[in-house]
Structure of 6-phosphogluconate dehydrogenase family protein:
Amino acid sequence: MASPSQRIGWFGLGSMGLGMALNLQKHLRIKGSPPLRYSNRSLSKGQPLKDAGAIPEDDFESVVQKSDIIFTMISNDDVLNELLTKALTAGGPLAGKIFVDTSTVHPDTCASASQQLGEKGAVFIASPVFGASPVAAAGKLIFSVAGSSEAVETIKPLIVDVMGRSIIYMGEDVRKSSLLKISGNILVISFLEVISEAQVFAEVTGLGTEQLEQFIGSMFGPVLDSYSKRITTGAYAPPLDTPPGFAAALASKDAKHALSIAEKHGTRIPTLEVALSRLTAAREYAGESIDSAAVYGTARREAGLPFWSENSRQGN
């Protein structure tokens, strides 16, 4: 169990990380623990954290030096590797520290991080999360956690009923939590692809998207209904000043990880292959300010419809 005197650090304040870090800082303040120390490539994004009592640091190395447990929420494997290199070469002692990465990265990246930090006496916990940014802000994420059971018990009070509603413990092998998260995203991206195809079908045949969405909600429940609404409300291409819930770039990265792992094990994921192709086309056409549901925009174009719907933004 985390000691009230343990120092907690955070790096990564994107659409997910800021909400998570705010919930963690609120928890630390209530418990009378030392305030969260944080950093980010754009430190100004941490102003809400500073307002909540957290302490900004100029760089990741400073966060590591002044923390016992360090959380990261970053965009991809390259960023995580870059941060670990900084921590490993900064010269400060790492023994006894716990590094918790909540991002979605390749299982091999997790294994490498665990090995490198282990050689310095530190512990790496792979802890990717399920849920979009509103879920992160609400503190209702699901954490897929793997690594030292003792370290997991230490960080659990910082997660459950703070940043997340539950933990799925995947054992000591840090690759397993990454595999679960990637498997989950195979489902999410594939659901968006299939619903997009059905909604375009409803549109071009004259069935109507509203009627189809009513059926999806009644038949398959609130989760798939919410995916359909990301399409029909235009959230797949939000206003340029509104960050997407699950950015197309991140979904593409996760899809590539899944497809490469599948190929390595002699299998294919055809639905995900189509979705990745459509995501790539959507990013080329509409830029990076689009959601993973933008497979819908590409499917519309393939059917002779505009990429933009009447509810989405209308261009860049």
Remarks:
- DSSP finds 13 helices and nine strands in the chain.
- The longest helix spans residues 175-205.
- The beta strands are 8-11, 37-39, 55-56, 69-72, 98-101, 123-126, 129-130, 141-145, 164-169.
- The longest strand covers residues 164-169.
